[in-house]
Fold these 2 entries.
Entry 1:
Amino acid sequence: MSEPALLQVLNLGRDYDHGAVHALRDVSFSAHAGCTLALTGPSGCGKSTLLSLIGLLDRPDRGRIEVQGRDLATIRAAHAFRARSVGFVFQFHHMVPAMTLQENVEAPMLALGVPRAERRERAAQLLASMGLAARAAFLPRHVSGGERQRAAVARALVNRPALVLADEPTGNLDSQNGRGVIELLVAHAHQAQALVLLATHNPEIAAAMDTRIELRDGARV
Ligand SMILES: Nc1ncnc2c1ncn2[C@@H]1O[C@H](COP(=O)(O)OP(=O)(O)O)[C@@H](O)[C@H]1O
Ligand SMILES: [Mg+2]
């Protein structure tokens, strides 16, 4: 018997501007744990809208999303769902400027009540595994752009989320640093049996994912 999908998206629709803009139209797909999936298509095609609905940053106008068999519409405490089950990586790192990389990576574990010693240990280990041990005590502005974005990936993965939503995560990096970030995300999907959804308009990056979904004007191509 095949395993049930980790994520099911069914006839999803989202409008903006009181229905004047159809950002998503009747989008359906499913995806399994341990996979990487690229969302592709030109700017404005609905990639960010789709990720924000799956990550419960926004709610759909039509259709349904199920994560691990659970209909997201039934979830009232969106912040608790996000803290436990979702890791976000954006184009810009959004690190807290006054906190070191170590403290930034520890922060998501506070929401889950992870004890202090374990927070320290897990953040330090993850940063070390990303080649950032020597940068852990630095503030974000004192490390390179590539290092900051790797630390942002560490922060997204530290709670071992089932879903990782990455919105143009390499959009601000040169190709070598971009490849480094993609490798970290792919390795996480495989090792932690997570599902990585990655929005990109870079064909090389899309080709490195297990599957691709292409959008045009909010609909699947
Ligand atoms: N908050 C918003 N208010 C109004 N229109 C929006 C908003 N967010 C996105 N849109 C519109 O929805 C469409 C899809 O946008 P988006 O999901 O950001 O696409 P992408 O991430 O592929 O560039 C675009 O036409 C965009 O202008
Ligand atoms: Mg976008």
Note: The radius of gyration is 17 Å.
Entry 2:
Amino acid sequence: MPELPEVETVINSLRPFLINQEIISVNVKVKNLVAYPEVDVFIDELTNKKIIALARRGKYILIKLNDNKTLIVHLRMTGKLLIKESDQELDKHTHIIMKLESGKELRFNNIRKFGRLYLIDNGHPEQAGGLAKLGPEPLSEDFTEKDFKKLFKGRHGVIKSLLMNQKFIAGLGNIYADEILYRAGIDPERKADKISEQEQVELYHIMREILRAGIKFGGTSFSDYVNGLGEKGSFQEELLVYQQSGQACERCSEEIIKKKVGGRSSYYCPGCQK
Ligand SMILES: [Zn+2]
């Protein structure tokens, strides 16, 4: 699933093609991808709106429109938001097509159909699923070490699940959580209340560093993920632990293993993650 760096990369790649563009027409071929409002209202209210800004919150793409509305897109497992020329052939997994003033099209492509689109009123994030319940943005300038440490108060769950909990902190998923814990030398199954203050501080800095690196490399492309122009990222080449089972740990030479943590496949080094 695209995580914060992938979603950020998609947004950055789309921005030059979308800013100041009017949406001329909207074609929704798979209705259940539109989660809010009703499809007819969604199409009606989106048509002839102008795109004024793009932003990200957690793993959500926010396409801000004139008229106090925001189009929200959650890519989930295999969703792609792509810029295409209108004469480019439609993929069989293209389910929503928005024609732009420029003649190009913004297409939502989704093999597994788990992605979701919402057209919300500004100031009403509760209209878009979990958007209103997201925890802090890890890369936000005003999100400090102290703020991160505060999140641990009263938390007893395993650290890997906590990092992936969108209400705890927004934007992390399986890949980046594994990489962060590896680099911090923390066992993914360690309980949150057994993470020392010193380790919380280290986690805060490693988390920000890894997410920034993920963005710099254009995200991690294993199978589906591409940016808005269909280009793959290269952070998969920088991974030290995720999907590296059987390999020797770079730090201690022990074999990296795969195990289930909170129902998710997790990669870690039993030699140096304690
Ligand atoms: Zn190791």
Note: Residues 197-216 form the longest helix (20 residues).
